[in-house]
Amino acid sequence: MGRALLSALLPLALLASLARAYYVPGTYPAEFKIGEALQVHVSTLTSFDTELPYEYYSMPCCKPKEGVHRIANTANPGTILEGIRIENSVYNFTMKVKQTGVLACPGGSYGKLTAKDVKTLKRLIDGHYRVNLILDNLPVTVYDLLDEKNEFLRPGFELGFKRDGKYYINNHLVFNVLVYMTHGEYKAARDTYAKSVALESLDARRHAHRHLLASSGSSSSSSSSGSSSSTGSSSSTGAGSTTTDADTPFYMVVGFEVSPCSIHRASSRDIEDIVCGVDDNAHITPQEIVEGADIVYTYDVYWQDSKIKWASRWDAYLRMPGGKVHWFSIVNSLLVVLVMATIVGMILVRTVRRDLQKYESLVVEGGGGPDSREEAGWKLVAGDVFRPPANSASLAVRVGTGVQILAASLVTLLLAALGFLSPAARGALLTVGILCFVCLAGLAGFSAVYVWGLMERSFNNWQGVAARVSLYYPGLNLLIFTVLNLAIVRTGTTGAVPLGMYFSLVLAWFLVSTPLTFLGGMLAIRMPLLDWPVKTNQIPRHVPPAPLAANPTLLFLAAGVLPFGTMFIELYFAMTSLWLGYFYYLFGFVLLIGALTCIINAEISVLCTYVQLCAEDYHWWWRSFSRGASVSLYIGLYALGFMASSLPTLSGALPVFIYLCYMSLFVLAFYYAMGTLGFAASLWFVYAIFKAVKAD
């Protein structure tokens, strides 16, 4: 998520730097003229205490006079699963036009609050819900985007506050929009591209029309010349229309700030010009939430010229707590992991080479004492080391699942590191992850069937293995997802997945993933089986009691320590961003840390397998998988500690249940992925050393 050499770090470091390129190449930023209209969009209400999002218009607030509707091109599987609903709003801006005391409600005020409205607002305020607004795809924030001293930034603002047992709502918003002046070059380029596409389409239709006339025997000379002249005039007209007046200023939105406050106002009186946080607000009475209160929603709009360019406008939003510590810790972890990987690799190479030399002396000279036998102990199990394990089909299913998870994670992280999956593209990361997992189901079928064939030395009844791998892990995820959705649906939040999306996932599972799994199995049975370097005895060898150094429980617990230490810091920042509302963008470093974790996990798995074989214990198949997966145990324990230390405000049993369900899915994915990696590394190691013995 074999790059042990230092030279392999250079392209991965470049991926980390590319993680700031957030927009897909070929897209253009939006430019606006002075006086051009802009509309703010509203997203779901979110809370870090409940983890249950609600639709914006589920609370008592003003609605647009044209009606509420979803914003086109904002819905995808990722946003639906995350509960994000982006809709139009009552907040309308005019580029570079200052507005003060604007009434948000078409009728002047929302109207008198009912007992139900009061209960809803109090519940949302007690849950510390935040309002999320979006302007030109930028989220609103209460932080100063130009102040570099701010180490972190959260989107949205508090819906209201509680003071002395009374509830108040932030009904007045002061917006500050940061803009960067351009000369319309992006708009001109976009218009030129659109017109060129339109002309190509027009020429294609005319060519088809001339061909139709020619086939019917009509004279095509006049129509051909006429169309050529008209095309030429259209082209010249299009070229002339794309010229942009260089003196006409255009502006791009590069920041969106807000200062919310609570002001009690009467709908029948004039709106007083008050700037939140600037004027002396001691004489201002806040708007209390009580039954019968007539809430007047108002807003101001200010514009501020900025030197922030459009390509850098997300930089301020991507700050995280302890950013400098983050970078230093990652570099330190990289150095430690590289040193440890080199040491472990050298120990294994030198030890195995010494064992082979000792074995050669035993064979050639025919001597050797007890010490020689002990040092060459792993070669004593040559006749049993490739004996098929118990429940080989279950092991093969787990390996196939792990291959699918590793492949889907690698593709998703590569796309994210290259900048194609950014915070600006809401839901894109989850959408691509699901798509990759479904489309790479063929790898799971291929790996599971082939590994099962290796262990059993036959592909008979391979369909059962393919069926199990297609149903096992997706079914387990769907079961947890269904239970979680049933628990959420009664709350009325947007976190509950609609039935349409739910059945779409089920159809993708059965109509796409399952056939691909069987297709992968069909390809696997056409592959020749790898020949083992040694023959398996008919009678199993007795396994002596394991010494303390080769104790299975001790090896299991020790195997996951170093891989977990490798990813600990990155895991902390990723979980902080995920559960505390920060943006996360260091996908290049995630890819780098993931690669190093895989390297050290593979080496530790090989080392533990070597220790086990030296103790004359040949039951390495399942144990190599479990030792590789042991890092998931530490991740699970860390998730519990993170909930207790960093999420103490989770209120109620349902938010805790949501957290535990999502982290269970996360830990389960790590279990299969890292277990598969440990198994594959051990399989390669065992095959290599016994092949070397045979060659000697």
UniProtKB/TrEMBL annotation:
It is found in: Endosome membrane; Golgi apparatus membrane. Residues 214-241 have a biased composition (Low complexity). Residues 213-241 are annotated as: Disordered. The keyword RNA-binding does not apply. It comes from the Eukaryota. GO terms for cellular component: endosome membrane; Golgi membrane. Keywords: Endosome, Golgi apparatus, Membrane, Signal, Transmembrane, Transmembrane helix. Residues 1-21 form the signal peptide. Its main location: membrane. The chain crosses the membrane at residues 327-349, 395-421, 427-451, 471-489, 501-525, 554-576, 582-610, 631-651, 657-690. It holds the Pfam family EMP70. It is a multi-pass membrane protein. GO terms for biological process: protein localization to membrane. InterPro entries: EMP70. Belongs to the nonaspanin (TM9SF) (TC 9.A.2) family. This is Transmembrane 9 superfamily member. It comes from Chlamydomonas schloesseri. The lineage of its organism: Eukaryota, Viridiplantae, Chlorophyta, core chlorophytes, Chlorophyceae.
